Amino acid sequence: MVTPLRFYFLYSLTLISSHLTTINGLFSEQSNIMLPTDHHPTEKLTHLHFFYHDILEGKNPTVVEIIDPSTSSKSGFGTTFMMDNLLTEEQELSSKPVGRAQGLFGLASLQDRGMVMLINFAFNEGEYAGSTLSMLGRNPVQDTVREMPIVGGTGVFRFAKGYAIAKSLWEISTSEHFVVEYDITISHP
Fold first, then answer.
1. Among 96, 84, 81, 82, which Cα is nearest to 51's?
2. Residue (of 22, 2, 170, 153) closest to 91 by Cα position
3. Distance of CA 80 to CAs 68, 103, 139, Å?
4. Cβ neighbours, 10 Å, residue 115
5. How many angstroms separate the CA atoms of 69 and 148, rounded?
């Protein structure tokens, strides 16, 4: 005998399965069911402030060129770099470390110094130790202030989304040591 509750469950299961479309065999399915998009009521808004240090020359550089397309482009189009930069609490390189910026960037514009950046901010300080934030987007590095998207994270920042404001500190940067101030605002559970 089918009880009303069991009937409702079977009906719901049939309805859900009829909305699934198989794509690429059994590996993935796409659902036409719309999920609520409202923010979770316990979502937090977090602001982070730190300084990023590109060490470009010397015996221990933290940025290395990995692709040189040897083109005649004035913008350096195609040139790609890998980084593992120190993040500090204050603008001095000797101030308290809070993590690392690990990732890559490439010159992706024929007209200007626009970069595409993929950076994981890996934190090792306080309540954020072991957590990361991922930034992916266009960085018009010739501009003093620019905005880039935060597209995810891990640990405390799992499901994070938000934005980063980067400000080049031209007044204290040198050809060997480039300093960027970051203000990051994210929402996360």
1. 96
2. 170
3. 7, 11, 14
4. 23
5. 26
- Tokens at 38, concatenated: 């409202």
Nearest to residue 133, comparing CAs of 66, 71, 82, 87?
Answer: 87
Task: Write down the pLDDT at residue 20.
Answer: 43
Query: Length of the chain in residues, anyone?
Result: 189
Mark 32-42 as b/e (b = at least 16 C-beta within 10 Å): eeeeeeeeeee
Does residue 31 have a pLDDT over 80?
no
CA 150 to CA 142: how far, in whole Å?
20
User: What whole-number distance in Å separates Cα of residue 83 and Cα of residue 104?
Assistant: 6
pLDDT score recorded for residue 93: 95
Measured from the Cβ of residue 27, the count of other Cβ atoms closer than 10 Å reads 7
**6 pLDDT exceeds 60?**
no
